[in-house]
Input
Amino acid sequence: MGLDDTGSYTLWEDAKKFAAMIVFQMVPGDIFYLRRITATSYSDDCTLFRLELPEAQVIESNNPYDRVAKKKRKIAAYRIHHLKKLALREIAMLQTTGAKKTDIQGFLAVATEKFAAQDSNHHRLLLIASDLQENVRYAPELNLKDVRVAVVGFQPLPNPKKTQNLKKYWTKYFSNLGARRTQFIRADENIQLERL
Output
């Protein structure tokens, strides 16, 4: 997920709420990268954090009186809860830096690398909280094959026609990179991971 940290994007607090919604809905085995979108989105200083929830252990006993199995399930649930709590605390403390330019391409380049590092069995979801006003225009090689894209906390332009054209442009752009689907979700909506 990329959080647009530029002066033109005024929904920073809403974007943080979307990031928190994602963390809250994560399940064991999920990996979540949170990054800033700035003038230098590809650089390491745009990394906010990486959250990986450990895979759920297979507990062979379904016996409700099996104390060992019950304890293992409880420890696993506590660990997941603790990791989520730490991530939510980090999100709450994030402050905007108000970067001067928006480098969407650099963010997409990092996302391409992260997706390529995972095996093909993983579901890939790219979240962008932005007004999509790209103005750096690097041209890296990008691959979003089978990725679902959701522009969450989308900040429309004042002119509805220009906003419609902007959405069409980015939908086609992501599709040309191989994205399976692109959705635009405004700040006043909620998101559910299984529906994206």
